[in-house]
Amino acid sequence: MKNTFTRRLAVAGVVSLVSIATSQPSGASTTAQASAAKPVSGNASGPTAKQANRALRKKIYAALAQHKEIDAGNISVTAKDGVVTLNGTVESAAQIEQVGSIAKGVSGVAAVKNQLTIQKPFGQ
């Protein structure tokens, strides 16, 4: 049993070394491949689009957290290039409008797609 374990461990080590050695291109081609694989953004020192979308979502959740009457735990926010989509449930039609207004008020939001629905809490 110990012999089988040792063999498997040795084989795994060899496979790992071979895969590392074959996946590492050398010299100038590494730089060319690395630069070709990077997405090109408008500002080389700025955040990527994914990071900007994530930051916008966080700002919207932070703005919603300022309003204790809104249960943001039932709301999902997606952002893409300044367009925000709100999904989930709130307790009233007034809150649908309120959440949409809060999202529109966050800097960086170009448009809001409000797809929230009403769901009364259990027992009401």
Count of separate DSSP helical elements: 4
Instruction: State Rg.
Output: 25 Å
Determine the N-to-C terminus distance.
Answer: 64 Å
**What is the CATH architecture term of the largest domain?**
2-Layer Sandwich
Low-confidence stretches: 26-41
CATH topology call of the largest domain:
Histidine-containing Protein, Chain: A
| CATH class identity of the largest domain | Alpha Beta
Shape: globular
* SSE-based structural type: alpha+beta
Number of β-strand runs: 3
How many structural domains in the coordinates? Answer: 2
Q: Numbering strands along the chain, what is their spatial order in the largest sheet? A: 1-2-3
Q: Give the biggest sheet.
A: 3 strands, mixed
Order of helices and strands: HHHEEHE
Helix % is 40-55%
Mean pLDDT over the full residue set: 77
Strand content: 15-25%
Describe the structure.
- By secondary structure, the chain is α+β, with helices and mostly antiparallel strands.
- The chain has two domains: 2-35; 49-118, Histidine-containing Protein, Chain: A (2-Layer Sandwich), CATH 3.30.1340.30.
- A three-stranded mixed sheet has the order 1-2-3.
- Helix content is 49%, strand content 18%.
- Residues 26-41 have low confidence and may be disordered.
- The N and C termini lie far apart (64 Å).
